Amino acid sequence: MRTRLVIISIWLSGGKKHTRTVEGVFMELSRKQIKRGIILSVSVSIVALLLVMLLTRENLTLKTFTRVRVSYLIAAAVITLVFWTLKTLKLKVLARSLGGRISFSKLFSIYVASAFVAHVTPSSSGGLPFMVYFVHRERLPLGKSTALSVFENMSNVIFYMVIAPVLLLVWGNHLHLGSVITRLFYIAVVLVIIFIIVSFVLVFNTHLALVFVNWLTGLGLVNKIFSRESLEKFKNFIETEINYFNQGFQLLIKKKKQLVLLIFYTILYWLFYLSIAPVLLLGLGLKVAVPPVILAQLVFNFIQPVIPTPGGSGGAELSFAYLFKFMVPGPLLGVFVALWRFFIFYASLIVGGICFIQLVQGTDYLN
Questions:
Q1: Do the domain assignments include residue 367?
Q2: Predicted TM-score of the model (pTM)
Q3: Is the sign of the CA dihedral 101, 107, 113, 117 positive or negative?
């Protein structure tokens, strides 16, 4: 939320260049904040993992940690690389559809670096703005860069809206979530759908969006803070970027081959992403029904964005342990959660951190 407000404030203060607006947004993330985010996310994650292991320490020995077979760890590493690749291919399809010419290697770096930023910012909020900024630096207009990031995320949300409720109805009893948590999950799904509909109406209906902007800029408090000239610049900026966004959407809809590829890569991405947990369970010598394992991960991914810590650390480990406590024996639960967290969180934290350093060199991102 803070980064969005910074965009507005920079434009209202009369920024000289369009690009400076984007750079100005990300100056809010300093080196100190990145370091603090890394320390906080890793330390909270480790404490949560230790807590899970302490709570399930009965019969937990050093042999428990060596129980997982190396071949399955290698398989999990390969799967992780595959779903990173599939995510990059999705971005490549979207960039091409929107008229961008961005190399696969550059998009791969942007994606894993944005994952790193998400891991070290509260509620994983920094990842999408980071992606928008660095895609924009590859000569794609800001509105289209935003469209690329939003469409990529929307494809995931649509997948959730279709798959998660159906699986929860069919196999929800395997998770032992209880009626209250199940109800809360469905309420959250409904709220997300409403939010998506309202957002799309505002974005694709330029008239309604401008009515909203006119209302916002007409507020007495806003007029006291910013000059009329700055408010006019802001309104023009919003109108221009909505038009770019709409153009991007129209381009994507017209290119049916790219749209089919986007759907195909989205399905493949989630198939590989959701296969990490089953592979690790097999590596630990456990045989668990696949549908509940898939459902537990979907429920977790729906919950994670609302966890306020950087990268969802702490809450991610504890909620994942809770979802799997009826499927994984106590002594193995902590080991399983630690292994899963390594491939889902620590791997992209490390690789993304390296790509992040490479990308920000020569930019004003950390000034």
A1: no
A2: 0.78
A3: positive
